[in-house]
Amino acid sequence: MTGQAVVVGGGMVGAACTDVLARLGWQVTVVESGAVGGGATAAGMGHLVVMDDSPAQLALTSLSLTLWDALAPQLPAQAEYRRCGTLWIASDETEVRGAQPKQRQYHAAGRDATLLDAAELARLEPALRGGLAGALRVPGDAVVYAPVVARFLIERAGAQVRRDEVTALEDGCVRLHRGGPLRADLTVVAGGAEAARLLPEVPLRPRRGQLVITERTDLPVRHQLVELGYLRSAHGSDEDSVAFNVQPRPTGQLLIGSSRQFGPAGRDIDWALLRRMLGRAAEFLPALADLSALRIWTGLRSATPDHLPVVGFHPDRPGLYLAVGHEGLGITTALGTAALLGADITGGASPLPGVDLGLGRFTGALHA
């Protein structure tokens, strides 16, 4: 089956879905109210990372990293793809022991992961403070400038881009604010935080994050650096949280995260939370305190109750496909999400057998 497809949202997930649909023979129109790749895609760190918070998350991120590996040679230089790897930093021996099952999970998924002792960590990343206990090194992780990739995939697909706002999803068409109805044999909603407005039955909540980029520096940072306590911040309670997460950029700058905050729907900077975030980062990289910030910005992630995306056909609305709720992993999992879409619309075997990311896991509905 092919025909006219409409993808709602021109971020990284929407672009990946567009690319797969075009390769399957669909004529695709992307509806995006802002610039392609200019929403949550531009507000993220572009970290391509295998995460093991749940078996489903491990399977989806591992599949996605394999697809990113295959895509990387085709990307333009401006995408700044680099396989710098991730160091999960252990502050003490308890965290070192906690990294051991994480390493086993990575190996079970076919991903390389190596435990480093304190001396090895200090040799690889001498700018980190002394007294750290070690790290788990995941060399296959990478970073990318995702807005460029989103534009590349949509252009490669030959898709039409409509700069408009979707006001309603109806059977066989999408209602636009300025352009009237747009016929759609298949509609894919990949609109990040905006999807909650169109699909109130999907349990999505915006979660705000803040990022800082520094001036150029000769501070030697070679890997994406993340504290092992990051998952407590990412998937913990509803309270505001911060974690150490620093990424070296090809420009010689450092990108500093991360913060997570439910509640605020706007993009105003929370200065108190920002100070907490920077203070946490300086605990691991003390020299950060001497650098100037060139830019600070916020973005809204779209989160589900179980921190997994909703991917699959809507159980009650024929012709409507959901690719939403990726929270902070939208860049990493975009390609895996698109692969699931391709399998679902062609009736092929799932690339993630046994993994259910459908809306029915919240509503109890069966897959349509």
Automatic annotation (TrEMBL):
The protein's matches in Pfam families, at most eight in alphabetical order, are given as: DAO (PF01266)
Q: Which residues form the FAD dependent oxidoreductase domain?
A: 5-341
UniProtKB keywords: Oxidoreductase
Q: What is this protein called?
A: FAD dependent oxidoreductase domain-containing protein
Q: Which organism is it from?
A: Deinococcus radiotolerans
